[in-house]
Amino acid sequence: MARKTRAPRPPRPVQAPERRQQPKAAGFSRRATLTAAAAALAVVAAIAIALAFPRGSSSPPKPVAFAALPGLHTGAPPWNNGNGNLPDKLPLVHLDALSQEGVALHIHQHLDVFVNGKRVTVPALVGIYANSFITEVHTHDASGIIHLESPKNRQFSLGQFFGEWGVRLSASCLGRYCGNLHWWLNGKRQPGNPALLVLSAHQEIAIASGDPPARIPSSYAFAAGL
Predict the structure, then answer these.
(1) Residues of the chain where predicted confidence (pLDDT) is lower than 70
(2) Distance between CA atoms of residues 121 and 113, nearest Å
(3) 126 with 179: CB under 8 angstroms?
């Protein structure tokens, strides 16, 4: 008998090789975490800078070079408002001649000045020139209230006010009196140069040359709306 021939078996299907997942690079997760943390810190820093400087401001005001100012008071107080040389002083005190008071920044401070324990009058019309122009920092009367009214939201210093007043102010000098200067902000004794103080709302500023007064003011009762 003839042998029966067997039909060949069909070929088995070939399976595609399984893809092996590549292991994650060591330290990748840590680097991503550190990157995210750094980005968060950058955002926090940007917010802090924005809060530190008012919108529209860029940097602290430039120091006033008192030695270059014309018409500085060299005698004993009382000192007049210094308006005789005000137009010439404006570039040196970094203030502008405005046709009207600005409204972008409108705040007030109170200033007390003493020489050997006696109060010195802060005169009216500092920074207001013969009804011709007004600067950003000025006085209307002899109450000691400083009016800061600017068309731009930027920073101003106490030195700018003393510069247009024509009274030298530094870490050691008030006018012609040097060597024994003290100053206070809201009743607290301060170090350094008072001319560099950045003006903000409702500050009570006291400056004394020689023996200070028996009582240092710590606040001022501003009228409603100031």
Answers:
(1) 1-58
(2) 7
(3) no
